[in-house]
Amino acid sequence: MQLPRSIQQRSTRRAFTLMEVLVVVAIIVVLAGIGTVAFRYLSDSKESICTAKIKVVENAVVGYNLKKGSFPGSLAELTERDPNDGSPAYLEADAILDPWHNVFIYEPGSLSKSGKPRIYSNGDPGHPKTIANWYQ
Fold it and tell me: Taking burial as the number of CB atoms within 10 A of a residue's CB, which of 32, 37, 65, 113 is the most buried?
């Protein structure tokens, strides 16, 4: 007994056709392109988040200065409760960390043109770029 022709062809086919290979390659290329664009936007968004967090830290430093009459010696002082009157901390502990989980660099003795202490981050350790409050 001989098998029908369509069953014989399926059983002898053991490789991908050129069209199937091209479709798979095209899908991989499209996914790689989307991934590259998404990664670039992720990097840009971290820089924007860093700029916003620097502004928050700067506002806390200014508030501390208004209340105490001097700038804090370190950013860690902004995350502690005031022992004298028990008022809450100016910032949460993670607020002084940049998006790459490094503590912002704070220079209380070095003032910008606006009269505020310099606060900055060196950015992504793999691609250093200074993100600072004195550029704003």
Answer: 65
Of 116, 108, 130, 128, nearest in space to 51 by CA: 130
Q: In angstroms, rounded to a whole number, what is the distance separating the alpha carbons of residues 66 and 7?
A: 86
Domain total in the chain: 1
Report residues of the chain scoring pLDDT below 70: 1-13, 135-136
Residue-wise pLDDT for 78-109, tens only, equals 999 988 888 899 999 999 999 999 999 999 88
